[in-house]
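An instance noted here:
***
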Amino acid sequence: MAHLLDCPRQTHMIPRALSVARPPQSDGVAVTDHVGLWPQSPAGRGEHVVAAGRILLAVLGLLVVWLDPRAPARHAPAAYVVMAAYVVYSTAILLAVWKSNLSIRVVQIATHGIDLVLFLLFIYLTEGGTSPFFAYLTFAILAGAVRWQWRGALATAAVALVAYVGLGFFAANVLKDPAFDVNRFILRSMYLAVLACFVAYLSAYEERVRVEIRKLADWPRPVSLDTPELVKHLLGHAAHILSAPRVLMVWNEPGHASLRAASWSPAECSLVDAPSDWGDSVIDEQLAGVAFVWTNTSMQDRVLVSTAAGFREWRGAPFDSRFLADIAARSVVAIPLPSERLAGWVFYLDKRRPTSDDVALAAISTREIATTLDHAELLAQLRDVAVEDERTRLGRDLHDGLLQSLTAARLQLHQLRRHIMPDSTAVEQKLEAAETTLAASQRELRLLVTQLRPRPQADAVPERFEEVVSDLGERMKREWNLAVTARVELASPLPGDMARTAGLMIHEALANAARHGGATTADVQIHGANRVLTLSVSDNGCGFGFVGRRTGSELAEEHLGPESLSDRVASLRGTLSVDSHPAGACVEMRIPYEEPV
């Protein structure tokens, strides 16, 4: 079987930005070394610590030279002067660093060089290779680590060690100093070398943690709601954070019969169905739900498992043999996928010398992957629901408004055929009525199209909703020969959307009364108070197919009543009831709404 990670050439490539080793800089920010020593910057904080340590070291050194009752040096007067000058110099640097925006590079290089020269001078003016001021070289190494991490520590130690060996050679072979102790000189040289190595290691570790934190902070936003493209993008960034050559995600997707597998490498990637011989799980059931590190050393499985109490070693083969043969990995950092929707694993493959720190970093990255995928799925669902709701709303608007008007126009034209020959005056009146109806429908359609466009401002609030209802009554008289009386009582103006929706609902109820109930008169009552709009439409038609009062839920169960109105009221979180009898019917709708600001 071909390895899963040997992706075919025709698969989509991961975006180039994800394969870059260095994360992109923030937009609009120019990065330069020649910025002020701001206390908020890492360089500024480090330089403040070095400046404070320098002045403390200088004052203590001067006190040691001054208070020692013995002759502290071969050149005591010069030592006093140099130590006093170093105190003044340290004070001046401290004030300059805290009060001024000096160039980082200039301050670091200049003060570091001066410190090294003065420290070696102190050693020479006191007791040479056995001078107690040898400890000052330790401060120089630490300062180099703070400023330039492990490179600064090693470079400072190399310069200090060469200079210190030179001083020892000068004291032993040129000055012939009888107090020169070879054993102490060798031990101090070894101490300086070992100290430099330890400080360099700690600095390298601190730099690595800082870089990893910065990578985590640069977690990308979703580039697309398309699952394959999003998975590839996320796996690429996770690989960049852990410096892993390859990443593999295996999961069970709802509605999918087999396992899904997504792999990423700097050159290629793929999103496919997992091989059928992997089965339902590729991990030993004893390791289900826990993170672990697996390495293969001398054909022996070594598994470090993360538990609540810490890390422990687990004996056994963590992977199915067929899965391990397919991925062909030398090491694996395995993290369960903490997703609410997906059950699976993310494997960081071929990480060089994976450690427990890599498990924690991989767990954070995997959690971000799961969270991003869950959010993308929710956004996609919301998008689909919004589209469906908008399509439903548009269909109701067309049905309750334009469709009813076009139906009336068709009936008017149908009657026109009956009057075209006998009476020209009647023909003219019918034509005028049809033209008026079609013009009103045209205006309504234009308003509907306008409502579908993005609106930067809030909906307009009609000044008098009574005029809207009055126009609707005249229209029903003209279209359906239905006499409408109306009364409007509103405690405050209606929002634009609610006013338009209420008009369409009244239109639908009146059209139903005239077309299906054969009504000739109708009474409309509109009452709005306490953010509840009550619409009541009574008619003198034949009623619905039942006698008595029915609620909206009862109408839905019995498949009775106006379905379009029921759906619209339900979408607005309102209630509907119908009181039907042979002499007419009354439709009442109660809709909650927010008062306009």
Observations:
- The two ends are 67 Å apart (CA to CA).
- The longest strand covers residues 521-529.
- The mean pLDDT is 76.
- Residues 38 and 44 are 5 Å apart (CA to CA).
